[in-house]
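anyone seen this seq b4? input:
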Amino acid sequence: MKLNSLKPRIFLSFFSLIIVLGVSIAMLGAYILKKDIIEKAQQEVKNNLQTARSVYDNQISAMRQAFELICDTADLSQFQQKIGLDYMYQVSLDQKQRVISPIVLRAFEGKAIGGTRIIETQELIQINQELADKSKINILPTSKAIATDRKILEQAMTIEYALPLQDKAGKVIKVIYGGKIINRDFALVDNIRDLVFQNKVYEGKSVGTVTIFQDDVRIATNVLTDKNQRAVGTRISEVVYNEVLKKGGTWVDRAFVVNAWYLTAYEPIRDIDNRIIGVLYVGVLEKPFVDTERAIVLAFFTIICAAGVLAAILALILTAAITKPMTMILRATSKIASGDLQHRVKTNSPLKELRELADAFNIMSSKLDEREKSLIVSNNKLEVLNRNYLDLVGFVSHELKGILSSIVLNAYNLRKEFLGPMNEAQKKALVSMSRNLDYLSATVKNFLNLSRIEKDEIMLKKTMANLKEQIFDVSIESFLQLAQEKNMTIDAQINPNIVINMDVGLIQIVANNLLSNAIKYGAQGGIIRITTQVKSSMVEVEVYNDGRPIASIDTDKLFKKFSRLIYAGMEKVKGTGIGLFITQKIIEQHGGEIWVEPKNAGNSFKFTIKTE
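predicted toks r here
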């Protein structure tokens, strides 16, 4: 299929549009679907974590309710066995100094209290050697966990409750306390999982999992390894460690747990002194959500593809109906373009619009034929008139230039009194005459330059020249007297090291025009500032003058031929409206550009020019 012909292009346009729309809709649908499913799942995990925390906290509440039934003469060993504690003791006031548990010490202050704490190895051995052995956990290598040298976790995490007993005077005489070791307490995490997730399974894996960490080590979990064993001893990932254990925050995100991806939530477990001693984790297997998402997306794309095939067939039919008559019109257009304005189109298309297009094309051909003949005659006349106009402008300007040069020279001699002294009235008249002669001389030069530009006779003669010494210093010297007559200050901040490959005569015209305009339209007693900036291979020149800022709607008029802006107070300022037009053409021939930037109290004319 050739892509440079009309039929395949129209078909591909239709088909591409269908594909783009289809893919866009499919991607949008997939994004919304994924966002909805995952966001709902993450919210569900947050709720699950709250539920798990409630179940965990209920362990302490259950202990509190049980301890409230204890009397002073109760058989503690029997009571311990009845409520399922791993240890239970009573401590008298005189034994207080030997107490290690901060929970028991807090109870001696007179208030029952429960919480989670860490039991060190020595205390575990004193309680029960078998319990100490059972609590030991081998720390297993875990990917994504922080590096560690620890091999065995010998401490234990316990949920403990302490009840103070008081005498009739309200003084604490002893404390009864007991606790349940969490290390390898799988019944606890399984109970939480069953309450939160109803023990659902997906492809052989539990949908929900619960873990209790001591520091960053799993001590009770129903997360399974590849060998279908509880992942006790595996560790938390580094990113979760930093967020939860170090910063004390809650971490909710997808995470790789032992051997599968889960949508997880972690929060710190704190002791009664608010120190972080572990982490409570719940996770929902991500795969069910991913599989659901993929199934829906696949169905969605199947529908889109089927619709795309149907639309492509319709596009092919429509393309054939359009391209046949369009091909005839295209061929006719080529004939018209080659000059055969007598050619006409014949079509019997069943489409009304194409028949009307053919009729309109034939009418256009007839009109073009008539207009072509008329334009040939008019163009010949315009060429003659334009040639005469340009010759006249050039001839008159050239003749006036010679005459004006003589008059200006004589006026200069008179002003300097080389031909004899003059009275004050004669001097004033001569000053006025000199100004008019200067304006007329500048006008003649502008018209000569305009004639050269219109005839495309300007040929650049570039040489390396210093922008300050050979251009702007010359212009400033020429216009300094005019500036002093208006009490204007010329501040030239031109880099003396800028050397440019340019046509010196033409760039001198640019400098003269910009400086002349700055003086003519600048404010009485104002400042004219000339600055330069070197930017890569370009030089930017700015000529600023105090005065009335040019309105933004007028800036585009400045560089048009014979266009002048006259604001209030400028009615007596003379000008032809071609100086800036000539300036722009010269700058463009040097590969630069010129523009105006109105300021708060004046205007900046800026132009760029290549350095080489």
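DSSP finds 13 helices and 20 strands in the chain. Residues 394-399 have pLDDT under 50 and may be disordered. kinda curious what u guys think
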